[in-house]
């Protein structure tokens, strides 16, 4: 199995910055896509940003120009740098990874989530 552990959430004022990290561990052969999703109270979980193993990124329009996703393949870690945070960014942020285990089984994995709260 593969485990994802997020860190870096917290409370910040509008206009501030936070950096989320997510470390993957376990029976990993390769992680093809890693990314971040978020879920605000009463809303569906939505894509924030994803990054492939070769560095191709995709992000939601609402965070373009403010959030930057990156990864360190050697450390099986994905980061989300969040700048100019807005109250509407308040949500639980979940790390996601898609890849193969050491026995070449495909899977999609989720972290437990980290709370980001932006005060106005």
Give an overview of the whole structure.
The chain is an all-beta fold. The chain is 0% helix and 62% strand. The chain contains no helices and eleven strands. It has strands at residues 2-7, 10-13, 18-26, 28-39, 46-52, 57-59, 67-72, 77-82, 91-101, 106-110, 114-119. Strands 2, 4, 5, 6, 9, 10 and 11 form a seven-stranded mixed β-sheet that branches. Strands 1-3-8-7 form a four-stranded antiparallel β-sheet, with no helix packed on it. Strand 9 (91-101) and strand 10 form a beta hairpin. The radius of gyration is 14 Å and the shape is elongated. The N and C termini lie far apart (40 Å). The model has no long low-confidence stretch (mean pLDDT 96).
Summarize the structure.
With 120 residues, the chain is mainly beta. 0% of the residues lie in helices and 62% in strands. The chain contains no helices and 11 strands.
């Amino acid at each position: 199995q593969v485990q994802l552990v997020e860190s870096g959430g917290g409370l910040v004022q509008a206009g501030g910055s936070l950096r989320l990290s997510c470390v993957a561990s376990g029976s990993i052969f390769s992680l093809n896509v890693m990314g971040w999703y978020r879920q605000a109270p009463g809303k569906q979980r939505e894509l924030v940003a994803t990054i492939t193993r070769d560095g191709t990124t995709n992000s939601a329009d609402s965070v373009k120009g403010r959030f930057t996703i990156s990864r360190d393949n050697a450390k099986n870690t994905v980061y989300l740098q969040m700048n100019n945070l807005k109250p509407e960014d308040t949500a639980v942020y979940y790390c996601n990874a898609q890849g193969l285990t050491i026995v070449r089984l495909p899977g999609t994995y989720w972290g437990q989530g980290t709370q980001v709260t932006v005060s106005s």
